[in-house]
Amino acid sequence: MENLTIAAVIPLYNGQDFIAEALRSVLSQTVLPDEVIVVDDGSTDDGADIVRTIALENDRVRLLTKSNGGQSSARNLAIRSTQCTHIALLDQDDVWYDDHIAILKAAALDFDRSNLALIYGDLDQMDETGRMFLPSCLRSNPSPQPKRSLLECLSRDMFILPGASLVLREAILDVGMFDERLSGYEDDDLFLRLFLSGYRSLFVPKGVTKWRIHSGSTSYSPRMDRSRRIYFGKLVEMFPDDPRLEHYWIRDAVAPRFLGKGLSEFVSATRAGDRPRMEEALRDMDSILPYAKRKVRRRSRWLMPLIRALGPTRFDGLARTLARLCFRDRPPKPRYPAPSADDRGYQT
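and the corresponding structure tokens:
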């Protein structure tokens, strides 16, 4: 695509501690984006004022404001407001390496196949202060890159970070944009719909983004828990099990994945002595169990009363052991021939 243009999109919500660093990383790119759109999603801190100050120094920066509706609605507003061909996403607390756009743009231009909609790279995890603790984390994650089947998309989190991605705007519009009900899993949802629609993706095995993990991240918020429940229900509607075709997307892939998430929440909650969170995790698993394999449902009938009784007591360690025994159900591992040298890093 000769006329490839890029809009950098940053949703902002009470991000005064990190937004300046994120925005400066965009403006220090070796290949600059054509425009930078920050969407203030109803912040109550000084983050928007920081953006306004930076915008006075650089006319590429544009600040949009809206009432709080979550990062999906903020991203959608920015995507609708630009005419650039591609969207480069960044969260307010993450940082781009200075060759982020150069690497992803070059890969997009070099990849001579039609329908390429998603180009994404690896990322390095850092803590709240910016200290590195896991370089190239996609290579150590069990979710394979790139995704080569629907089973791979459903059985584990996609683990394609928006902040390491360059996405064709036309494709985003074509599949219905970000689901504004979701503030968590909205990226998995979008990238899954791109896959289902036949759009191609390209994985560049190089770290292009620093991903900040801290206690204030969306991943650890109640909003994420609500989004996970909504997304599970959405997947159940989209991929009902069909015994006639021997397609058991929910039973064999989606249910084990989300039971695993609930189990992790339960284990974490009991260790923290957080009883409301523990009960919420158990309710989540209760709602998933009807879709699980028969052996898991059978175990739960015997073990669930014990888990509920022991969780809030000094025998919480036994409750965790029983929960692992009850709910752990590993999703299937798709097996494919090793890709050829021409195929490595590409979704065909």
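(Above: one complete record from the training split.) The beta strands are 6-12, 35-41, 61-66, 86-89, 95-96, 116-126, 132-134, 165-168, 200-212.
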